[in-house]
Amino acid sequence: MSFALAPSGDDGLYEQYFKNQLITKGQLKNGLKNGNWEFYFPNQHIHFKGVFIDDLKTGEWTFYNEKGSPLTKTIFKQNKVADFKLYFKDGKAKAREFYSN
Predict the structure, then answer these.
(1) Measured between alpha carbons, how far is 12 from 30 in angstroms, rounded to an integer?
(2) What does the pLDDT look like over 18-37, one tens digit per residue?
């Protein structure tokens, strides 16, 4: 069973649950994702997190493995990837790519 707890307007804290476990939480403003958002694995470790502005990913987003180590860090500009970093399982940097256009 999945359900979401949303604010009684278009602004406030949004939380989504699956089988009574938190899987998503973040802020809504004018009905759009704004601010910090976090998405969780079933073991409650963070799967990925980052910032939305008006429903668009912006700034640094970090993706983790189920043990909590970072897998990738991605910089978004206008909802497009601008900088991408890939990590080994031990958390050490493996590769980095830059994108334009």
Answers:
(1) 9
(2) 999 999 999 999 999 999 99
Q: How far apart are CA 24 and CA 1, in angstroms?
A: 14
How far is Cα 61 from Cα 23, in angstroms, rounded to an integer?
A: 17
Tokens of 27: 């802020």
Q: Report pLDDT digits (tens) over 64-81.
A: 999 888 898 888 887 777
CA distance 6 to 84: 32
Q: What angle do CA 19, 61, 22 make, to 5 degrees?
A: 15
Tokens at 84, concatenated:
């991408």
Q: Could you tell me the strand order of the sheet in which 93-98 lies?
A: 2-5, 12-18, 21-29, 32-40, 46-53, 56-64, 70-77, 80-87, 93-98
Q: What's the Rg (C-alpha) of the chain?
A: 15
